[in-house]
Amino acid sequence: MKDTTDGGEPMVRKGLGVLIAQLACLKPLGLQELAMITNGSSFANKAAQLRSSGLNRITFSLDSLKPGTFRSITGSDKLSDVLDSIEAARSAGYPNIKVNAVIIRGRNDDEIVDLARFARRNSLTVRFIEFMPLDSGHIWDRKHLVSAAEIREKINSAFPIILKNMSRRGETAWRYGFADGSAGEIGLIAPVTNAFCGDCSRIRLTADGHIRTCLFSSEEYDVRGLLEAADREPKSPTLFVLLSQEKHPAIPLAPLHSSIPRGR
User: Which of 11, 219, 238, 243 yields a CA-CA distance of 20 to 30 A from 202?
Assistant: First the structure.
């Protein structure tokens, strides 16, 4: 069992270190890994503290290495802070540091090779993610999609890559190593053109105690209310098993809201 804390942005949560330490207490009960995904803008000064609290692995969102493009995509000028956070994670001893980059045609698809080079130079994993129909602003359009196959070809033309054995079994990404033996790894996540839904056993717990079986789903289950009503009796494992079985073979390609109104 693995737990990944993301958001939103988890670093804005007050008492995050305490939460990580509390989650780490679940390791004797079967939690194998405690991970977090962050935009990296404020991680640097907390890297060592969170590592000592029990955080095992860290992934950064980094869609561009160019200040102007970074600002255009994220709305912030904190590229240097993100790069500092990646270096702080390395200094704090986090293994297998990952970077997620969502590739959007006409925005940052000209940086695919640069991001692959970044993986090689810094001995980390860069995961290239297809632009998904997941936006509350309704900006998704198929014409902006750069397929994983196209991304792979662009990288392979500059730095030949080799698919790793058993890649993507139980994971979201196809994993590639560099043919020349260079450090670093390339991941390709293709939720639109080659969905991983059939292998997915993940469930998402929201900040207000609801569960979704899929990031793209608008259906939620009030697990907090269930636990409160049951006086915290051990009924949740059955619920989790049932929810994990409610998986679909592929995602819908119509734009969906990422923020679902709670009505409360």
Answer: 11
